[in-house]
Amino acid sequence: MSTPKGVGRVVAFGRPPAAPDENTAARLAREAVEAAELRAHQARPDVVALRVERVRAQVDRLCWAGIVLGLGFTMANVQHFASAGATVWSLPWLAAWLLDPTVSLVLLAILRAEQVTARYRVRTGPWVRRAKWFTLAATYVMNTWASYAAGSLSGIVLHSVPPLVVFVAAEAVTDLRDKLTEAVSAAFTEADRRAPAAVHEPRSRTKTRRTTFEEYLSAARAAWTPGTTVTPSWVREVTGCSRGLSSRLAATLVREVSGSGS
After folding, report:
1. Cα separation, 178 vs 209, whole angstroms
2. pTM of the model
């Protein structure tokens, strides 16, 4: 049994075959409508903001993986520095393994907290940065001390790279989170401005006016009370806004509350 002519092209391009009575112009018109509808959905503010959120999650995972691997590399060097030639499996030798995790866990706790504060653009106090720099400096000194004492340039370079990478990544990841938060807001605003009017929810019989950003924000202000933690989910609950818009509303309200409280 011979294969029909159009089957190969259907498999190659994944496109349904045209109807027998559908001419080329009608097929192109149908495909143009489908493409326009797809582009319109891709330009929806929530979809654009979701894409940026996914990129931010990938950046977070990669930075955290690099930081954890760098701290893991330094652990053996710090243990060697702390044990100071103690007998293997002796109490001082075992206790020396606790020094690097002590410093690393404090650093990771600070970075994890900054991950949340940067997302909502809340500034931390000076002691947070001092603690982060101190833990990073302590890790660097303990890693390179033996190489400096021996005058080994190759050892200094080898043991300097992982702590410095951790230091740079710890500083960069906070700024990246802040900029990606701005990118989410900017992408949502731009997509909201440029979104075609053709893609909407099914029309109702009565035309309703679209709620503005300021109206949502006013509703959130009215619902907020001292002691309430402002999060996107809380904003959605009290205002009924969309998921993408709730992040902007939460960030704006947090800035207002922080400014009024200072």
Report:
1. 33
2. 0.53
Name the one residue in this structure whose structure tokens are 């109807």: 19
Judge if 184 and 216 occupy the same domain.
no
Whether residue 83 contacts residue 99, with contact meaning beta carbons closer than 8 Å, is answered with no
Q: Encode pLDDT of 169-204 as tens digits.
A: 888 887 787 787 777 777 667 666 665 544 444 444
Q: Which of 122, 230, 255, 248 is nearest to 184 (CA)?
A: 248
Residues 118 and 241 in one domain: no
Whether residue 122 sits in one domain with residue 87: yes
Q: What is the reported pLDDT for 60?
A: 83
Whether 205 has a pLDDT exceeding 70, the answer reads no
Q: Which domain holds residue 256?
A: 210-261
Q: What pLDDT is attached to residue 200?
A: 45
> Of 189, 222, 245, at which residue does a domain stop?
189
Residue 9 has pLDDT above 60, yes or no: no
Between the alpha carbon of residue 234 and those of residues 47, 54, 188, 224, 238, the distances in Å are 21, 22, 19, 10, 6
Classify residue 107: in a domain, yes or no: yes
Question: What six digits make up the tokens of 96?
Answer: 């020396």
